[in-house]
Amino acid sequence: MSEAEKKSPPKKLTPADVLKGESPLVLTATLEPIVGDRFQPAGFPEIGHVIYKAPRKNGSTEHVCIVDSAASMANHLESVCQRGAHDLDLVDELNGMPYIRCVTGDLVHGKLPSDKRETIVTSLTEGHRIASSYFLDGAALKIDGAKGDGKFEGELITKFGIVLPGSSKAHPPPEKWWDVFKTIFEIDPNSLVHGVLFPQWQIKIPRALTAHLEAFGAGRVDRSGVKFDRLGKTTSGQPIFAVDDATAESIRATFVLDVSLIRSFGRKKGANTLGLSEKQQEFLVALALWKVQRLLASPFRFRSGCHLRRTTLTNYEQEVEIEVNITQAIKDAGLDQRSVTDVFWPREELYREGQADAAKGAEEDEASEETEG
Question: How far apart are CA 182 and CA 177, in angstroms?
């Protein structure tokens, strides 16, 4: 019998098994460029990408390149939920999953008809997700399209059970955290997968799904390009610019799912359920697994010069295969009865020249490292 015939079939990973299994779940995918051996890691002008020497147990070092950070990978994992980069509707498989849209348009008799709504951003495109000012400072539309009386922020304060709103000591009492988890799940469950921070209410929920992309045995490839101004219509002349690429012995994407965190979002207490039910927790696991599966299912373009395809997927060297029916998971969690939350901004408010509140901006910048992506 050949080695190929002896090889055991991949272990199937289902949301139910993962929810009851060990935490964290660690998945490692090996990737390769679809053409050639060069690829473009994340980097910045005049800085380039990061290659560092990682110490190994035998006393040697290995050059490791950061291809994508945790924040960047979160953005990629959210992008697979949409139909396209400029088409913000969810893919068919996620029909029924609630999320938030910031919309504008011209009110007709105090209402905004659904066919007149212009979507600006969603909680899947905003770095702060449900905590973004695009949603908190807008007015949630009612079922008939009428504008709400107050800001969407006020609705969350009530549902979260926040005490001392407007104060630096604002917070939900311990027993109200179950309402926090349940409310976010019903409005935007994706925020529980990728984490969310409301600094004004001292609510911080870390990422349940974390990912990063690295290249091992990496080498830097320095090359250049040139811009031609054939008609002489610009002042740039004919600039030469640097381009940073990389090569590597192997490229690996690592996905870490904190199953214990998801289990902490709900529990049974006698005949009552506090926070999320088991099926709702299972949906969060299903959504996380579906995102990983979708990202790796076909060659994915992480950026213009970084088009990679998966070769293997393992869990601690055991080859695995993700098996998830996300459509059924949405129904089992009761989410197919929920609707998208549309938060309205008047056009003249949304597109006016910015006069940002400096204090608020500084507060959001301070939070961005943890929540962005």
Answer: 9
